[in-house]
Amino acid sequence: MAQTHTVTIPHFVTEASVELTHLTAAYAMYGTPHIQPDGRSNILLVEHALTGDHQVDQWWGPEIVGPEGVFRTDQYCVLSINTLGGCMGTTGPGSIAPDGQAYGSRFPALTIRDLVHFEAAVLDELGIREVAAVIGGSMGGAKALEWTLLYPQRVRAALVLAVSARASAWQIGIQKAQMTAITRDPHYLNGDYYHTEHTPQQGLAAARKIAHLTYRGELEMDERFGTDAQTGENPLGPTLADSGRFAVESYLDHQASKLVERFDAGSYMILTEALNRHDIGRGRGGLNKALASSTVPTFICGVDTDILYPYHQQEHLARNLGNLIGMAKITSPCGHDAFLTETRQLVQIMHRFITRIST
Amino acid sequence: MAQTHTVTIPHFVTEASVELTHLTAAYAMYGTPHIQPDGRSNILLVEHALTGDHQVDQWWGPEIVGPEGVFRTDQYCVLSINTLGGCMGTTGPGSIAPDGQAYGSRFPALTIRDLVHFEAAVLDELGIREVAAVIGGSMGGAKALEWTLLYPQRVRAALVLAVSARASAWQIGIQKAQMTAITRDPHYLNGDYYHTEHTPQQGLAAARKIAHLTYRGELEMDERFGTDAQTGENPLGPTLADSGRFAVESYLDHQASKLVERFDAGSYMILTEALNRHDIGRGRGGLNKALASSTVPTFICGVDTDILYPYHQQEHLARNLGNLIGMAKITSPCGHDAFLTETRQLVQIMHRFITRIST
């Protein structure tokens, strides 16, 4: 784990014109940044996923980020900024506003573009004009794509994994279902629960279970659990109330508990909504025109069994991007999460990417 | 629409040994039943899906059931029985128990086998020993499969659409998420809400939206709605509370409202749980042994874009069934619901089936 640093952003205005002041950004660095006189740097900006954080080595591991990783930290400097709207050190809805109270429902709805503009402000504060590459999967991939269109002069290349050019109707539907699970929790209080004794943890748990089912492939899950009963429980009881759990329910309960312990429901709402609002084409003449206008060398990667961001969405990106430098498909029973779990394939793909942009 | 008839089943015991008495079964017939002296009949037993009903012509239409349908009602008699546990005339959790109160939480958890044993009791009451075929999709397909194993002497053939040999872990997970949406509704009262002024309609609506996203293909949904705003609303407002809906949200709200008007949350719980408990292999030496033991000529059909019952599950059925007479794949952007919506393909598949079993 790397040390968490912070930097203050004095002023920020969202895409929907909400002004925030005195924001904090948390970030971590792996390796030493080198910035040449012309501004070129050895920095790889790695974007984390929705409930991830800036501790990249904790989720991508040393095969990817480390002295012997594919992103060699004796050569490159991996920088990761905790997302605006989150709850891991950067300002989010649970942070204290200038009036001394938590933002709660006053915290603005954010778009992926907002998250990227905020990161650009962080780079400004750090004196970084340009990065060698921006790299990310899922929400991190959406950010990487927006980087290439918002700041093409600041990004020399991009590796975009397991994401699309915009939210699909299905994604919006399933993500709104998760948000409904949270808003229907009586402890949510329209987002203003930070001063109370309770948090909407049951709602967040219900949301995470739905999300997890979109992250994991049904094949992998079925091979592990099938219709097995949870040990010591009978899921086939005489009434619903008398019935225990299937093993897969226990697994999902465990996944949900883990998230509830480490993540804030308000941040989950804001970041899920940012994904609903992801749309490369907005204000740029539509999706394909926007993609065609991209000048940044971009490498696209998807997962064959992803139901959240199906592979045809990455094919769409690849067909329309203005400067495609490569494409790869991860083959996995794991679904969307393969961009985190299939290390051997990821290392190969990242090696192709890093070789291509180094020469 | 056909006339609804009812018949009384005096006594029924579930797989988990709960006894029910004085049950009502609602059913409809299209065409005239002919029963030969040896018991052979011209009856096609059509099984409806979870929130469907016995009015088959209302959901499969006249191209399928009618005088000029592929199931010609001047030749065959289409019989459909409303499912046990439902709310459309057959006994379910909202029905009045012998003590004069609604069953509510006392209503037993049911399995697909229970639903089939109940239908066999209905056929007994109607003096029908054998049907020419049993036909169904989704929950109806699960019932059709169980018919071939529980009562092989009473079913001359089966057409099984868009279902699997057992629930998958993913299905159980997403179906339990729907059940959680209902149980977390404060009006659910552990299932004992029938005597109150309220019903858990918000919970049922939330459940249906999740379900609908597993029924419809993401391609079809995305082509219709994409990231469009609902007319007159701004989904990109400055805060979450200030934001209107995307068009897909309005569509899902509408789908949910339609269901809430016509369906009972308690029945939704019981029937969803019956699908969780669907397992052809239980007590039969496992899935493949159970399927291999099947003697009833069975035709399998799936949908290429179904994420609820992916096509590999129908391939599994086809590979292992003891008496497979055919297989078909519906190609559609509509996902699971294609077994209801792709009439042209369905008619062709059903024609192959009916021809094969008539000769």
From TrEMBL, chains A, B:
Catalytic activity: L-homoserine + acetyl-CoA = O-acetyl-L-homoserine + CoA
PANTHER family to which the protein is assigned, alphabetical: HOMOSERINE O-ACETYLTRANSFERASE
InterPro entries, alphabetized: AB_hydrolase_1, AB_hydrolase_fold, HAT_MetX-like
Cellular component GO terms held in the UniProt record: cytoplasm
Keyword Transferase: yes
Function per UniProt: Transfers an acetyl group from acetyl-CoA to L-homoserine, forming acetyl-L-homoserine.
Gene3D superfamilies for this protein: alpha/beta hydrolase
Protein name per the record: Homoserine O-acetyltransferase
Record-level Gene Ontology MF annotations: homoserine O-acetyltransferase activity
Pathway(s) per entry: Amino-acid biosynthesis; L-methionine biosynthesis via de novo pathway; O-acetyl-L-homoserine from L-homoserine: step 1/1
Subunit structure: Homodimer.
Originating species: Corynebacterium choanae
Domain AB hydrolase-1: residue ranges: 43-342
Keyword list, A-Z: Acyltransferase, Amino-acid biosynthesis, Cytoplasm, Methionine biosynthesis, Transferase
Chain sites annotated for binding substrate: 208, 337
Catalytic site: 138, 306, 336
Gene: metX
Subcellular location: Cytoplasm
Residues annotated as signal peptide: none
EC number: 2.3.1.31
Gene Ontology annotations of biological process type: homoserine metabolic process; methionine biosynthetic process
